[in-house]
Amino acid sequence: MYLLGYDIGSSSVKAALVDAENGSIIATDFYPKSEAPIKALRPGWAEQDPEDWWSYLKAATESVMSSSGIDPKDIRAIGISYQMHGLVAIDKEGRLLRDAIIWCDSRGVPYGEKAFRELGAEKCLGSLLNSPGNFTATKLAWLKENEPETFARIHKVMLPGDYIAWRLTGELCTNAEGLSEYMLWDFEKNGPAQFLLDYFGFDASILPDIKPSFSEQGRVTEAAARELGLAAGIPVTYRAGDQPNNALSLNVFEPGEVASTAGTSGVVYGINGVLAYDTYSRVNNFAHVNHTAEAPRIGVMTCINGTGILNSWIKRNVVPAGVSYAEMNDLAASVPAGSEGVTILPFGNGAERVLENRQIGCSFHGINFNIHNRSHIIRAAQEGIVFSFMYGMEIMEKMGMEIKKIHAGHANMFLSPVFRRTLASVSGATIDLVETDGAVGAAKGAGMGAGIYKDHNEAFASLRRIEEIHPDADRAPYLEAYARWKKCLEETVANSCFVD
Predict the structure, then answer these.
(1) How many other C-beta atoms are found inside a 10 Å radius of the C-beta of residue 201?
(2) How far apart are the first and last CA of the chain?
(3) What does the pLDDT look like over 438-461, one tens digit per residue?
């Protein structure tokens, strides 16, 4: 008995086959092997052809089925994770009307800002828990104004995961988590945000049907089965955006639990048990995969653009050629906590929502030419990234979250002992470091949706813990360094050293 998970990313599509009984990974692969193209027809635009996602999915499926040698009839359920906030539009015949406008496209920004001003902060934050921002609904608003002929032909709009599920099953549906990515889920009314649909002039009929995240959402059609080498009738029983799915993959479901990733950019995604928002909209709030009106589970997300990209910049420009990331981590560990006064603000990769969309750039502070060297810079960079995470986590705490444990995959910046020890010590939280990925998580989510597992703890009982990191007994050096970092940040912002 097996489960099949897909992770539809903007750089590749990954497939994973999981043994439902013991949780082991039978086969996994991804396509394309080089990063998938993103079309940038104008500055700030980003589009992809959904047909490419389907082609990559076919290739990944063929690979895992071939390498595993299993009978397709033994696959019990399929789960889907996908890049968030994308916009796919089809006509009544099911034809794509244009390329998808994906998550990193910024053309919806002015439409979100205008809606926030005209509808008012109280209404938007109270109902959506966010400003309308640069999400799927505002991308659709751009399409309505700038491509009216295309807009007039829309039968349904979909998120990337909805599109893949539709190609698999022929069923057009989404869920509350997905509609919260649009900014079209009204948490007060527990349904689609009719006030925002009315504001933008969208007919609610263009939205897919709404089904629970964990439920049967259609079955693989005969046509899809022939294309993919699968058996017809396999149910799709789970779907979620990549960050909620990453949290699921790390077994993060309950209030106070936090999932974190630290690749090129970094994310802290924590679960809140109450409907709350940040007045300045510095963090995003989404319905988590297990959210219900009776038991709210809100995924509160802070995203830091300048994370691993800072570490890689230092590797290219500060350390000698040939020095590995592991060796950089050793150099960082040779310096005491606080980097002996060196402070780095890591915001050199564009506007940061946590800073109210300001661009202040990356800056180095406190360097003494007589005592500091590259080891101090490497450590200060890692600490600066951690402190930016902590800055967002403090906003979460003000919203009512109590952060007790941070779950993270053993990858990217979390490979650094200094990074994870600093995060544990400054936050006071324990870090549970495990080995997983989004496609594997989606497969296990499918097992939950199919009723194979009684709950998430059974589904993720096989998660392999690599290490548990506890805060240092003496947290003072970390807290002092964070206080210095935060003061430096506040002075930089106050001195208007940024470009809006």
Answers:
(1) 10
(2) 54
(3) 999 999 999 999 999 999 999 999
Residues 223, 281 contacting (CB under 8 angstroms) = no
Mean pLDDT value across residues 458-482:
96
Closest CA to 284 of 189, 353, 195, 360: 353
> Using one digit for the tens of pLDDT, what is the confidence trace for 367-380?
999 999 999 999 99
Please count the other Cβ atoms lying within 10 Å of the Cβ belonging to residue 137. Answer: 28
DSSP classification of residue 72 = G
From 179, 265, 161, 267, select the one nearest 217 (Cα to Cα): 161
Q: How far apart are CA 471 and CA 424, in angstroms?
A: 5
pLDDT, tens digit, 9 for 90 and up, residues 198-223: 999 999 999 999 999 999 999 999 99
User: Residues near 182 by Cβ (< 8 Å), separated by ≥ 6?
Assistant: 85, 135, 136, 137, 159
Distance of CA 307 to the CA centre of its chain: 14
pLDDT of residue 498: 47
Name beta bridge partners: 287.
298
pLDDT tens per residue, range 263-296: 888 999 999 999 999 999 899 999 999 999 999 9
Q: Is 68 helix (H, G, I), strand (E, B) or coil?
A: helix
Q: What single letter denotes the amino acid at residue 312?
A: S
Q: For residues 288 and 271, is the Cβ–Cβ distance under 8 A?
A: yes
Give the dihedral sign, CA 375/384/272/137. negative
Return d(Cα 455, Cα 179) in angstroms, integer. 24
Residues listed for the chain: 500
Round to whole Å and give the CA distance between 225 and 435. 31
Residue 262, beta-bridge partner list:
266
What is the distance between the alpha carbons of residues 419 and 384, in angstroms, rounded to a whole number?
10
C-alpha to C-alpha distances, 21 to 25, 63, 166, 214, 322, nearest whole angstrom:
11, 22, 28, 19, 44
500, pLDDT greater than 50? no
Q: Closest Cα to residue 10, out of 32, 41, 43?
A: 32
What gap in Å lies between CA 462 and CA 456, rounded to an integer? Answer: 11
User: d(Cα 375, Cα 360) in Å, to the nearest integer?
Assistant: 24
The predicted structure's pLDDT at residue 350: 78
pLDDT tens for 361-417 read: 999 999 999 999 999 999 999 999 999 999 999 999 999 888 989 999 998 999 999
By CB atoms closer than 10 A (0-12, 13-18, 19+), residue 499 is: exposed
**DSSP state for residue 145 in the 8-state scheme:** H
For residues 213 and 239, the answer to whether their CB atoms sit within 8 Å is: yes
Euclidean distance between CA atoms 177 and 289, whole angstroms: 6
pLDDT mean across residues, the chain: 95
pTM over 0.70: yes
